[in-house]
Protein: ATP-binding protein
Organism: Streptomyces globosus
Amino acid sequence: MVTVRAVGWARSFPVSRGVRAAREWTAEHLESVPWDEDTRREATYSVLLTVSELVTNSHRYAGGSARLVLTWDGSCLHVSVADDDPRMPLMRPADADLGATSGRGLGIVSAVADSCDVHAVHGGKAVTACFGPRGGPGPHGSGT
């Protein structure tokens, strides 16, 4: 039997701290995730892009602090951003309103993560993306 020790980190990022602070904080914690070097090299960009998109959207639409939580459960790094805005984001089709310069964040996150989920939490919402090891089974037994 393998014992898995889950680890996690959490921090709030007010609008004044910005997205850059969230990316830097995340990059520091990524070093302790036990990925092989190939996975680390490929996943780091995707995780940091996800943090940028989710924290930006939280600041833009909720107008307050973005609560960023990173959790490693032994098979997946969960990146979750919560805020107090109860409106659920909608994924727009890639070809909708081609001139738009915004509104594609959830689509980007869904494209780079192994899985992505949006759910209501404490009067607001959270968006959680999961990143599993490269070449391994899908997160939590799902197919990749």
Observations:
- The chain has one domain: 7-97+116-139.
- The longest helix spans residues 37-62.
- The helical segments are 18-30, 37-62, 105-112.
